[in-house]
Specification:
The protein is α/β, with parallel strands linked by helices and about 350 residues long. The protein has ten helices and 15 strands. Helix content is about 35%, strand content about 20%.
């Protein structure tokens, strides 16, 4: 009996330690009789049992969309690593815009604390930096509230992110990475997740042109741009106008939610999200069908290739009659040939 009690206590302690590393409790267990409880037992943010979750009231950042927040059990976790994916390079703007929208919501509660955005030279050269005037006009973010750190290598960016994630002087940390580098593995994301939990601050991992892979993040959102609808006026939609920026948000991974897809609009005037549903979504699809925009062919898998090139050439094809006549017409006459072949005069 004594050995059985010791074994139960050992298993219970190991399961709690694993839950701390992963950021969730796989199931709520009653401590064995006489077993000491962790001093940090009350600090766990999420308790999961057979797919159901019960989060503390202040554990999540509400996005403001009732259906999406309900699917995420209250919103995005405040003290955790969250992934925001863009599957293609052309989604970089949508991913950054959605991240800045979340930053705007965070800064409303951050009491003046800044946000640190970390990236490699490669990602900033490819996707660029946010525009300062746009930050204030669209998201209410002052330039001094958003700090940037450009690292020459991925290993440097990861080190900066890990050190910044433990700081309580920052409202949040954003790490932007391109592709699926080998160094950004499950161990690296576990460290980021653990630092975020320790500081009680969110860490957002922005993945540009990346394939989903196992990480320690409890939530992964896949973001792409959605067609904008005309601006709403008192007289109805204004034809030919461009409304608020819109995003297609897919829940790619969540420990508390089933996969789902939502279309959100960011209202830059009121600094909040609105969900596009039913008639508005159909209207946006019709607008897109009536005004198609050609896109550049994809760099990988080529799921949406551009149309084939036409046959309009800058110069006539070799051997054609037009090429022969043009060549004969451009040749100098016998009297001009000597001057044509002579050296040019300096004067």
């Amino acid at each position: 009996m004594a050995m059985t009690a010791v074994a139960r206590e050992t298993v219970f302690a190991l399961r709690r330690q694993i839950a701390k590393i992963e950021g969730t409790l796989p199931e709520r267990l009653q401590a064995p009789a006489g077993a000491p409880l962790d001093a940090d037992a009350g600090s766990d943010l999420t308790i999961v049992r057979r797919g159901l979750a019960a989060a503390l009231p202040d554990a999540c950042l509400p996005i403001g969309i009732e259906r999406l927040d309900a699917a995420l059990s209250g919103g995005l976790p405040k003290a955790a690593l969250t992934e925001i994916h863009g599957l293609e390079t052309r989604d970089a703007g949508a991913v950054a815009g959605f991240a800045l929208s979340i930053v705007s919501l965070i800064l409303n509660q951050a009491q003046g604390l800044p946000i640190l955005w970390i990236g490699t030279s490669e990602i900033f050269h490819e996707a660029g930096f946010p525009y300062a005037r746009g930050l204030h006009a669209s998201f209410g973010i002052e330039p001094q509230q958003l700090l940037f750190s450009e690292a020459p290598r991925l290993v440097d960016a990861l080190w900066i992110a890990e050190e910044a994630a433990r700081m309580t002087a920052l409202a949040a940390v954003i790490l932007e990475i391109r592709g699926n580098p080998q160094r950004l593995d499950l161990t690296a994301t576990r460290r980021l997740h653990a630092r975020a939990q320790g500081a009680g601050r969110p860490v957002f991992l922005l993945r540009q042109a990346a394939e989903p892979e196992p990480t320690a993040a409890p939530v992964r959102l896949i973001v792409a741009s959605a067609p904008a609808v005309p601006r709403e006026t008192v007289a109805g939609p204004l034809a030919g106008s461009i409304g608020h920026p819109a995003f297609t948000i897919s829940i790619g991974k969540s420990r508390t939610a089933l996969p789902g897809q939502f279309t959100l609009e960011w209202n830059p005037d009121e600094r909040r999200f609105d969900e596009r549903r039913g008639e508005e979504r159909s209207r946006a699809s019709n607008e897109w069908a009536e005004n198609p925009v050609p896109v550049v062919s994809l760099s990988r898998d080529r799921k949406d290739p551009a149309a084939a090139s036409g046959e309009i050439l800058a110069f006539p094809a070799a051997g054609s009659s037009a090429a022969i006549s043009s060549t004969a017409r451009d040749q100098p006459s016998p009297g001009q040939r000597a001057a044509h072949l002579g050296p040019r005069r300096a004067g």
